[in-house]
Amino acid sequence: MKEKKPKKDKQEQKIAELEQKLSENEEKYLRCMADLQNVRRRAQEDRVDLIRNGSEQVIKNLLPALDNFDRALKSLPEDLKNNNWITGVVALEKIIFDTLKQEGLEEINTAGIKLDTNIHEAVMLDEKGESGLVIEVLEKGYLLNGKVLRPAKVKVGK
Fold first, then answer.
1. Are the CB atoms for 145 and 116 separated by under 8 Å?
2. Tens digit of pLDDT for each residue in 78-106?
3. Cα–Cα distance between 144 and 104 in angstroms, integer?
4. Which of 26, 42, 81, 154 is most buried (most C-beta within 10 Å)?
């Protein structure tokens, strides 16, 4: 009988070793699966950032064109306001801005509010205005998906 016991002990020891290895392999498997999910999530986030940053640069490059449309339309002589060609240019500017709005672009509303250095860049002071209030917008500022793309350049009361 004594001979069977050592064999049984060896088998139990072998089973315990195999159970230990199985447990270790299960832990490794779970860690690998978690790592794989993290890699997939990070890759997806990187793709979204790449798309967002790519469009951000294109939109930033288009802002001077929007500024020029704005300046041209503000200085339009009264007798040309109903001209068909001008109406077409106004419609073109609206189409461009609406398309950029769909990408997340929005104007920063600034006139008459307190200076906020997060969204404003004060480039002029005026003695006449109330201290710290935006008196005039010299160049429009824009947000892209809630992030400041370009601060508004403003005149502020002194």
1. no
2. 888 888 999 898 999 999 999 999 989 99
3. 5
4. 154
User: CA triplet 92, 101, 72: central angle to 5 degrees?
Assistant: 40
The position carrying tokens 């077409």 is: 88
> CA-to-CA distance for 138 and 125, rounded, in angstroms?
12
Residues 6+ apart with CB under 8 A from 145: 52, 104
CA nearest to 121, candidates 99, 139, 103: 139
| Helix/strand/coil for 112 | coil
d(CA 61, CA 59): 5
Q: What is the pLDDT of residues 38-82, one digit of tens each?
A: 999 999 998 888 877 778 888 999 999 999 998 988 888 888 888
- How is residue 80 annotated by DSSP? G
Phi, psi of 134 (to 5 degrees): -75, 120
Helix or strand run (H / E) with residue 115 = none
pTM: 0.66
